[in-house]
Design brief:
About 35% of the residues lie in helices and about 25% in strands. It is of the alpha/beta class. The chain has 3 domains: about 5-65, no CATH class; about 85-255, P-loop containing nucleotide triphosphate hydrolases (Rossmann fold, 3-Layer(aba) Sandwich), CATH 3.40.50; about 255-330, Beta-grasp domain (Ubiquitin-like (UB roll), Roll), CATH 3.10.20.30. Strands 1, 2, 3, 4, 5, 6, 7 and 8 form an 8-stranded mixed sheet that branches. β7 (about 200-210), α7 (about 215-225) and β8 form a beta-alpha-beta unit. α1 (about 5-15) runs antiparallel to α2 and α2 (about 20-35) packs antiparallel against α3 (about 45-65). The radius of gyration is 22 Å and the shape is globular. The model has no long low-confidence stretch (mean pLDDT about 90). The structure holds guanosine-5'-diphosphate and magnesium ion (MG). Magnesium ion binds next to α4.
């Protein structure tokens, strides 16, 4: 679309893509509609937004009457540099991977449906953490509908494939089929569909697990013959750790963030233990917003030490932060 979209519109669009409930979807669709430039070039988009608003309102209305069947939907607050949700068929090693990377202790067992609720854990990467969420299995007969919200809200999905068992290939296909028809889908990159804004795609990695078991390579060949995806692929063993460092780096990279260390004018050294993480392309104002809700409006001056500038350069609030910058903020009282 050729329309000039405002930053407010683009932010609302991103929030909408990640909305975890119909109420959130409605809220952000309405912001998108208010923000979209009202001219000829955006007419098609305006109509589409109106349609989506009507659809979501109907969805909210119809769910009011229905009894709430899935009572286990827990809202997991976002933590760390970003969120990565682990999904897959039964026994694919989702819980094993969570316990490999984090201190969380989900039950790991050689029989299906051990994991009944979503379990979060924090995976270290250098001096920051990424939130991982282990989930119940997805099968043709079993799907927790709250998983849609987790998938939409996540920065990344890991789709685990059990290549230690002959059934693993079909089980992965079942998961893909399950997530094919709805408005929440897996894709190579996150985004909204250009022709139908109602479709939300979340970036997905395909993780072939149980590399340590015999017949892994033969099953991988079969997989490629029968299953079509364009996702980035990884081969790991969640038990002996093969391939897990490469995957860890890729998970962090997929969060699309930079680390920044802050310091007060009176401090000689910045707080090196606890960097803030900000989406790539964020500026000093965004950093202020993360620290305190009115710091951006009270910002008097900022100085930066980092790769892109000379040490101690005075910058404006719109300075784009680079990874590992040190930022000194002077905030008006
Ligand atoms: N050999 C081997 N076994 C694994 C691996 N990952 C998981 N398992 C085993 O597979 C079974 C299912 O694992 P679990 O994490 O509970 O699967 P989930 O249902 O996807 O959460 C358990 O017996 C695990 O010990 C792996 O990389 N190699
Ligand atoms: Mg499990």
């Amino acid at each position: 679309m050729a329309a000039n979209l405002t930053p407010q519109y683009l932010r609302a669009e991103e929030e909408y893509r990640r909305a975890q409930t119909p109420e959130e979807e409605l809220k952000w669709l309405q912001v998108m509609f208010a923000e979209i430039p009202k001219h000829k070039a955006s007419e098609k988009m305006q109509v589409m937004l109106k349609t989506k608003i009507a659809d979501v309102k109907r969805e909210i209305e119809s769910s009011k009457g229905a009894s709430k069947k899935s009572g286990k939907s827990v809202k997991i607050p976002r933590q760390g540099a970003g969120t990565c949700v682990i999904i897959g068929g039964p026994n694919s090693g989702k819980s094993q991977l969570l316990s490999f990377y984090t201190k969380a202790k989900p039950e790991v067992a050689p029989y299906p449906f051990t994991t009944q609720t979503a379990t979060p854990g924090m995976m270290p990467w250098k001096d920051v953490f990424v939130q991982l969420i282990d989930t119940p299995p997805i099968t043709p007969d079993f799907f927790e509908s709250y998983l849609y919200g987790y998938i939409r809200g996540a920065d990344l999905v890991l789709l685990m494939v059990d290549l230690g068992d002959d059934d693993g290939i079909q089980q992965c296909q079942d998961v893909l089929d399950r997530l094919q028809g709805g408005k929440t889908r897996l894709a190579r990159e996150s985004g909204l569909d250009e022709d139908d804004v109602g479709l939300s795609f979340t970036k997905t990695f395909l993780v072939f697990n149980k590399r340590d078991l015999p017949d892994f390579d033969a099953r991988l060949e079969l997989f490629r013959e029968f299953v079509q995806t364009d996702f980035r692929e990884f081969q790991i063993s969640a038990v002996d750790g093969t391939g897990t460092e490469e995957l860890r780096d890729a998970i962090y990279a997929a969060m699309g963030v930079v680390r920044v260390y802050t310091k007060q004018p009176t401090q000689k050294e910045p707080d090196r233990d606890k960097p803030f993480t900000l989406k790539e392309g964020s500026c000093v104002f965004d950093l202020c917003d993360q620290i305190h809700k009115d710091y951006a409006s009270r910002l008097k001056s900022a100085r930066v030490w980092g790769e892109a500038v000379h040490d101690g350069t005075v910058v404006k609030g719109d300075y784009i932060i680079h990874d590992q910058d040190v930022v000194e903020l002077t905030i008006a009282p």
